[in-house]
Write a structure and sequence with these properties.
Strand content: over 45%
Number of helices: 0
Structural class: mainly beta
Shape: rod-shaped
Largest sheet: 8 strands, parallel
Number of strands: 42
Distance between the termini: 50 Å
Number of domains: 1
Helix content: under 10%
């Protein structure tokens, strides 16, 4: 994503008169240059609200050859009513660079020359300038999870042998998803602004140079990359109840029974690889000169009101916050089987956990401001020279840099493992 506007404004105003002449040069500039950029890439979509994803109920007794909807019985591979999702935010991915490189060159020149004795030279310059080079750059932001979602695994009542896996868990509801970014975010605006105001008069003459500048330059930037989405609130993800009666077989018996592994309202991770760079350069140096010869008058007046904003906010790899009021429960398990039961799990539930934040690279904020007004009044013998300069300057080069911050955990959450009532014989390897 590339946004590189270029603006060059150069005005020249000159007046010249001979002996006992009168020359005036007036320049008035009202300039507004808007190079503001909003760049967004790889933004994950937000999750919906008030969604439900429910697993169906399975009730089976004895093998059922040819049944397409139920897979219980001898040699059955999987019985699953879980792995339901509801209201989850979408992923955001971005690979590449986001560049905003703006350049402004604005340098009006105002000259009044009245050569010879008894001449008058007047040069007036007024500049009201507003330059907006601010940028908002966002990449790889994970979508937020929705609120008030329910994802529930269905009930299972089985009597079989040789089943490999029975699961009603792995349900998730309203979880924020991850945001990933690889590359660089670059914002490098440059402003060069230096009006020149000059008035020259000969002996016995009058030279007056007046310059007034009201300048506002905005080079602020907001850069965000790899921000994980927030988890939703008020979600429920529950594993279904499980009631089984089975026995070992030549196929190895029960391999896996699970109603846990449920998640509700967890924040997504944020990952960032690359650089965040903000390099702003502003050069502002008006020059005001009034020169008069013998028995003459020279007046130089300069007034500058400058507001320069080079502030920066840079955030990368921020993990999403976990939602509040969530419940993730493992289902109840009532079993009686014999032989080769490898795993029974109703735990592994999580609710309202904050996401991790990952950052690899650099955060760079380099702001340079050069402001050097020059006001000169020169007059010869028996002359009067007056130079007045008023400067009201405000520079903001503040910077906020945040990287790799993990998301907050939610409040009022529950993660419960289900009840277990079983009669087990040989080869039970793990009960969780």
């Amino acid at each position: 994503m590339l946004n590189a506007p270029d603006a060059i404004v150069s005005s020249v105003d000159a007046a010249q008169a001979g002996v006992q002449g009168h020359s005036e040069a007036h320049q008035f500039n009202w300039v507004q240059i808007d190079q503001h950029a909003v760049q967004m890439a790889g933004i994950g979509g937000n999750g919906g609200n008030d969604n439900s994803a429910l697993g169906g109920t399975v009730s089976q007794l004895a093998p059922a050859p040819g049944a397409a909807s139920v897979h219980a019985g001898l040699g059955s591979g999987t019985v699953e009513t879980g792995s339901n999702t509801a209201g989850n935010g979408g992923d955001g991915y971005f690979h590449g660079s986001i560049i905003h490189a703006s350049m402004v060159v604005y340098e009006p020149i105002n000259i009044s020359v009245s050569a010879g004795y008894g001449s008058i030279a007047l040069a007036n310059q007024t500049n009201d300038v507003s330059i907006n080079q601010s940028a908002v750059q966002i990449a790889g932001i994970g979508g937020n999870g929705g609120d008030h979602n329910i994802a529930v695994g269905g009930n299972a009542g089985l009597s079989s042998s040789g089943s490999d896996a029975i699961t009603t868990g792995h349900n998730s509801a309203g979880n924020g998803d991850s945001g990933s970014f690889s590359g660089s975010l670059l914002d490098a605006p440059v402003v060069i602004y230096h009006p020149i105001n000059l008035a020259l008069a000969g002996p016995g003459g009058t030279a007056e140079a007046s310059q007034s500048n009201a300048v506002e330059i905005d080079q602020s930037v907001l850069q965000m990359a790899g921000i994980g989405g927030n988890g939703g609130s008020g979600n429920v993800a529950g594993g279904g109840d499980l009631s089984t009666a089975g026995s070992g077989s030549l196929l190895g018996g029960w391999q896996f029974l699970q109603t846990g592994g449920n998640e509700a309202g967890n924040g997504g991770n944020g990952t960032f690889h690359g650089d965040l760079v903000h390099t702003s350069v502003a050069v502002f140096d008006p020059v005001n000169i009034s020169v008069a010869g013998y028995n003459s008058t020279a007046d130089a007046h300069q007034t500058n009101n400058v507001n320069l904003d080079q502030s920066s906010s840079q955030m990368a790899g921020i993990g999403g916050s976990g939602g509040s009021g969530n419940i993730a429960s493992g289902g109840m398990l009532l079993s009686k089987f014999a032989g080769h039961a490898d795993t029974i799990a109703t735990g592994g539930n999580g609710a309202g956990d904050g996401g991790s934040g990952h950052f690899s690279g650099s955060l760079v904020d380099v702001s340079i401001a050069i402001y050097a007004p020059i006001n000169i009044a020169i007059a010869g013998p028996h002359s009067t020279a007056e130079a007045d300069q008023i400067n009201r300057v405000h520079f903001d080069q503040s910077s906020v840099q945040i990287a790799g911050i993990g998301g907050d955990g939610g409040n009022g959450n529950m993660a419960l493992g289900g009840d277990l009532a079983a009669h087990l014989l040989s080869d039970l390897h793990l009960v969780a």
